[in-house]
Amino acid sequence: MTSQTKSTDLTNPTEMLSGAAMVIRALADEGVEYLYGYPGGAVLHIYDALFQQNKVKHVLVRHEQAATHMADAYARASGKAGVVLVTSGPGATNAVTGIATAYMDSIPMVVLTGQVMSHLIGGDAFQETDMLGISRPICKHNMSVRRPEDIPYLIKKAFHIAQTGRPGPVVLDIPKDMTMPNQAYAYHYPKDISLRSYQPKQQGHAGQIKKAVSALLTAKKPILYAGGGVIMGGASTELTELAQLLNLPVTNTLMGLGAYPAGDKQFIGMLGMHGSYEANQTMHHADVIIAVGARFDDRVTNNTKKFCPDATIIHIDIDPASISKTVNAHIPIVGLVQPVLRDMLAILKQKKKKLDSAALAQWWQQIEQWRTVHGGRYDTTAPLLKPQYVIEQVSKITNGEAYVCSDVGQHQMFAAQYYPFNKPNRWINSGGLGTMGFGLPAAMGVKLNYPDADVVCVTGEGSIQMNIQELSTCKQYGLGVKIINLNNGYLGMVKQWQDMNYESRYASSYMDSLPDFVKLAEAYGHVGIRVTTPEELQPALERAFALKDQLVFLDIHIDPKEHVYPMQVPGGAMNDMFLSKTERT
Amino acid sequence: MRHIISVLLENESGALARLVGLFAQRGYNIDSLNVAPTDDPTLSRLTLVTHGNDQVIEQISKQLHKLIEVVKVSDISEAAHIERELMLVKVKASASQREEVKRCADIFRGQIIDVTPVTYTIQLVGTSDKLDAFIQALGATPILEVVRSGASGIARGEKTLTL
Ligand SMILES: Cc1ncc(C[n+]2csc(CCOP(=O)(O)OP(=O)(O)O)c2C)c(N)n1
Ligand SMILES: [Mg+2]
C-alpha cells in the first residue's frame, strides 16, 4: 500500500495503484474533500483504501438517502459536484430518492455504487440489483467499470458530465472485482476530457441574442423571470446588472430564489402556484417575458393554454429540450446563462438604448398597485404562533444571511415567501421532486462545508421524521444546524388540499403519537427547545443561535389551521389566485 | 405524422437501453427500430420510425440529443430520402396456390428463398408501405409467419450522417 501514499506527483506515469486506491486517489485529484456514504460488502476494498489516506474525508450517515442529500446540498451551495459512496443492492436502492431529487433540480453529483463481482452479475447474487437499470431514468448518465485501469478515466468522465452543460447526477457502478487490493495498475488522472458525443453549448447564438435585445427594447410591460439555472450557472451578478440597467421587474422561481436580491425594490417576489400576487399578475399581463434558466414548469405556468396571452417570450437556457417544451418560446437562445447575459449587456451598453420610459413608468405604477393587494399579509392578531411570523423572526436573527435548507410542505412555501434571499446558493430545497426528508441532510451537507455560516433547516413534524436518524450523524460530526420544526401536527400541505378540495376530510394527514421532539433531540445529544406561544419565540431563537456549534432543535407549535396563500386556482391562468380562505381573484 | 429518425450512437453497452428507455419514459411511440454497427465498429446506426405532431417530434429529437452516447440525430423524413425494409414471409403454398403466390411475389419483385412441398418463404425489400401492400396482395393465401426488419433510411444525394 506504500505506492498510493508515496508519490504525490500526478504526472508520474509509473505510479501503480489498486482499483480501490485509484477510486480514492482520483477523487483526491479531483479536489474532493468530503465523501458521503455508508459501507457494505461490495465497497469494502474502497473503504479500506479510504482508511489508508487522509486527503478525502468520509462522512458516515445513518441512511444512504441522507448521503445523497448531503452531497446534493453541498453542490447547491458551492456549485461543485457532491460525491456519494454506497454499497450494492440496498445501499444503492436507498440512494435512489436522492439521485432523483438531484436530477429533477439539475444538481451535479457523482454517485459511486458498489456492485457484485463481474462474473456474478445477472445471476441474482447476494445484494445484486441492476443499478444501471434502476438509475437510468433518474440520472444524467450512468456507467459501469469493466476494467480496473479505466477507473481514473471514468471518474473524470463522471465529473465532467455532472458539472458541464445542464448539470445532473452521474452514477458509476463498480463491481467488487474492479477494486481488488492485490492487483495494481498504472494510475494517471486525466486533466481534461473531451467526448465526441457530448459537446454542450457554451455561447449563445449571436443573431438570436441581438434579436432578443431588440425585442426587449420594444417592451412596454417587461418582466424578467429567473430560475435555478441562474443559480447553478453562477449568473446572479449579470442578471442583476441587466435588470437594473433596464429597470425591469424581476420574479424568481422557487429554484431561483436569491438569483436576484429579494431586498431590492425591483424584486416582485416568487411566481407560480404559491407566488406573490404581484409576480403572477405582472407575468400574466407582460408583453415581453425574458426567461433565464427557468423551464416553464407546471408549478409556475398553471394552465399553459391560458398562460400569458400577450407575451413575446425570450427563453435563455442551456438545455434545448427545455425550450418550447411546455410553452412556445418566440426567441430561444441556447447557451450558458452567464455568457449569454454578458453578450446581451455588451450590446445594450453599446447601443445605449433604454426602454420607453413613459410606458415603463406606467407599468411600474401598475405593479406597485398590485403589490398593495395582498402584500404577503397574514393574520397577526391570532393568539397562536403563525408560521409566517416564525420565518420572519428567523430571517431577522440571521440577518437574512443564513443558508436555509427546507423540507417539503407548507413550511417550505412559508420559508420561500417570508425569508428574503439576497444572495444565490442560500436557499436549498427540493423543488422538482419535492422530497420530504431532504431538509436535515441538506442542512448537514451545507454546515459541514460552511462551518462558520448560520445553517437553518426549516421543516415540519412530518418531513423531519423521514430522516430523523441523521441527528446521530450530526452529533458525530459536530454539525450545529438549527432546526426550525414548524409543528402543526398535520401533514399540512396535504391537509390544505383536503380543506380546499375534499371538504376537510383529513384522510391520513393527521399524525397521532408524535414524539417529544425536545427529548428526542436530547436523546441524540443535542439541545431541544419547545416554543408554544409567540412570547417564547424570540428568547428561544436568541438562545438557539447563540449556541454556535450546537445543534438546536426548535419544536415550534404553530397554528394548525394556517394555509399557504396566494395559491393559484387549478386550471386557471397565472393570475387566477386564492388570496385567503375567503377571497379569490 | 410518420417520421424516420436516424441516430448515430456510440456502440457501447447500455446505450441502446438508454435510448429505448427514453421513449418509454416520455411516452413517445416507436413504430419500428433498426440498429447495427456501422463501418466504424465504435458507432451504431439506428433508424427509428415514430409518429407524433411537430412539437412531439421536436422534443424527441432534442431529448435524443441529450443522451450522452448519442453522437448525431437527423429526421431524414424532412428531406428527400430512401427508405428500405426487409421482410421474410412464410406462406402456405400447396399445389393449387403455388402459382398464384409465385406470381404475386414476382409482381412485387420478391424472391422465393426457401421451398418445401407445402410452404414458400418469400424475401421482399422495399418501403414499409410496399411490404404492407404485399401482405394485402397475398389475399387468401394463409400467412404462417412474418418477419420484418423495420425501416432503414438514408438521405438522398450528398448529405450524410457521419462523424
Ligand atoms: C417523500 C414524500 N412523501 C410524500 C409527499 C407528499 N407530501 C407533500 S407535502 C406533505 C406534508 C408534509 O408535512 P410536514 O412535513 O408536516 O409539513 P407541513 O406541510 O405540515 O408544513 C406530503 C405528505 C412528499 N412530498 N414526499
Ligand atoms: Mg406538519
TrEMBL record, chain A:
Its cofactor is Mg(2+); thiamine diphosphate. Its EC number is 2.2.1.6. Residues 407-556 form the Thiamine pyrophosphate enzyme TPP-binding domain. The keyword Transferase applies. SUPFAM superfamilies: DHS-like NAD/FAD-binding domain, Thiamin diphosphate-binding fold (THDP-binding). Pathway: Amino-acid biosynthesis; L-isoleucine biosynthesis; L-isoleucine from 2-oxobutanoate: step 1/4; Amino-acid biosynthesis; L-valine biosynthesis; L-valine from pyruvate: step 1/4. Residues 19-131 form the Thiamine pyrophosphate enzyme N-terminal TPP-binding domain. Residues 209-343 form the Thiamine pyrophosphate enzyme central domain. Pfam families: TPP_enzyme_C (PF02775), TPP_enzyme_M (PF00205), TPP_enzyme_N (PF02776). Keywords: Amino-acid biosynthesis, Branched-chain amino acid biosynthesis, Magnesium, Metal-binding, Thiamine pyrophosphate, Transferase. It comes from the Bacteria. InterPro entries: Acetolactate_synth_lsu, AHAS_TPP, DHS-like_NAD/FAD-binding_dom, THDP-binding, Thiamin_PyroP_enz_cen_dom, Thiamin_PyroP_enz_TPP-bd_dom, TPP_enz, TPP_enzyme_TPP-bd. The keyword Secreted does not apply. Gene3D superfamilies: 3.40.50.970, TPP-binding domain. Binds 1 Mg(2+) ion per subunit. Binds 1 thiamine pyrophosphate per subunit. It catalyses: 2 pyruvate + H(+) = (2S)-2-acetolactate + CO2. Belongs to the TPP enzyme family. This is Acetolactate synthase. It comes from Rheinheimera baltica.
